[in-house]
Amino acid sequence: MPWVLDEIVQAEVDRLKRLRAMVDEMPPKKVTLVGDSVLDKYVHGWANRLNATAPVPAVKVTSSEAFAGAAAHVARGLMSLGMIPNLFSIIGGDESGQILASNLKREGIDTSGLRVVANRQTVVKTRIYGARESLIEQNQLLLQIDEEPQEEMPPAVSQRLTVTALASLSDADVLVLSDYNKGAITDAGAQQLISAAKGNGIPIICDPKLTGLNRTEGATCVLFEIRGLELTRRRLGLASSAETARDLISKYNWEALVVLGGVQGLWLYTADAEHHIPCLLDDARQIIGLHDAAAVAMAAALSQGASLHDAATLAHAACETILGAEEGQEVLDRRTLSASMDERAWQMQVSDR
After folding, report:
1. 262-271, long-range: CB within 8 Å, 24+ apart, which pairs?
2. Which residues pair with 50 in a beta bridge?
3. Residue 1: its pLDDT value, please?
4. Any idea where the domains of the chain sit in the sequence?
5. Chain Cα centroid distance, residue 198
6. Which of 35, 47, 120, 247 would bridge 130 by S-S if both were Cys, CB 3.0 to 4.6 A apart?
7. What is the rounded CA–CA span in Å between residue 204 and residue 83?
8. pLDDT digits (tens, 9 = 90+) for 247-301
9. Can you list the pairs that 188-195 forms with residues at least 24 positions away whose Cβ atoms lie under 8 Å?
């Protein structure tokens, strides 16, 4: 007699198959993307010995690479899924800014929304990885170096960015605010953008720092890390994560809160419901880009009218592709996203026999 799936498992398998078809047939939806862009640098080498004067590894560099990160990384993910990102961001008039813009152009991403500020430093994050030459599989992060301007972003620059982004909302299918608190998104600018998007009836996805929650009021969906939710719970003196999520949703008028837990899975909270999607991976090879992947997947789903539950399921599949990837590896595209959902559907069916 053929085995029969539990109704709940069957519903999730059907959801994954539906999302798989949506990704394969995804139309070129337009995304207004506003946020802070960063140049991500990765340096790899052998760490066979310690420095002669301090107990720190001496890394013999074997390779290095640079990618457009943060909001620019979200744009790359959207592009890889066949969507049309209109990126509005700010870079410095330096070599790092030129590299970032060139990388975007090379991938076919429109850079006309980038504002270049002369005599300003582009934000750069350099991650140095090392391994013993005889133990290649044990590559690990040794050091991260952050370079960024010490002065505040000129308000006039942020306001001009907002004005140009507002103009693009007239034919956009979704708004994404990727806020790394570097000055591209201001309190007033966020309010203007969210208000205009709501007026046009398009979904709004916000990926904020905890210090920038006031720049998310009225959003359709907000992204948190599990650590951020726990810190907020303690600060508010509440008893549980669910109570904290409901408090935030009510206070900031969100439709949903999506909490990224890495190998602990993903949680979707709304005012009256909670869904947990467990992770199939036992450990994470990396977590860099987790927020960006979730934002891309949520935008892809919501721009096509998907439910919040469907969108969160797609976001979780995107996160799993990041968690299982090599450091700095670019993995979020249609093929890898579809493969992640296929694997999950198969595992659910097998485990329910």
Report:
1. 262/226, 262/287, 262/290, 262/319, 262/323, 263/323, 264/226, 265/316, 266/294, 266/312, 266/315, 266/316, 266/319, 267/226, 267/241, 268/308, 268/309, 268/312, 269/242, 269/245, 270/308, 271/246
2. 57
3. 33
4. 7-38+69-121+152-351
5. 22
6. 47
7. 16
8. 999 999 999 999 999 999 999 999 999 999 998 887 777 778 889 999 999 999 9
9. 188/159, 188/162, 189/34, 189/158, 189/159, 189/161, 189/162, 190/214, 190/215, 190/216, 190/217, 191/215, 191/217, 192/162, 192/166, 193/32, 193/34, 193/162, 193/165, 193/166, 193/169, 194/218, 194/219
Pairing, β 114-117 against β 124-131:
unpaired
pLDDT at 25: 87
202's enclosing H/E stretch is none
Q: What is the pTM of this model?
A: 0.91
Split the chain (353 residues) into runs of 10 and give each run's mean pLDDT: 62 87 90 97 91 90 94 95 96 96 96 95 94 74 93 94 97 97 96 97 96 96 96 96 97 98 95 92 79 96 95 94 74 83 80 53
Q: Which amino acid is at 21?
A: A
Class of domain 7-38+69-121+152-351: alpha beta
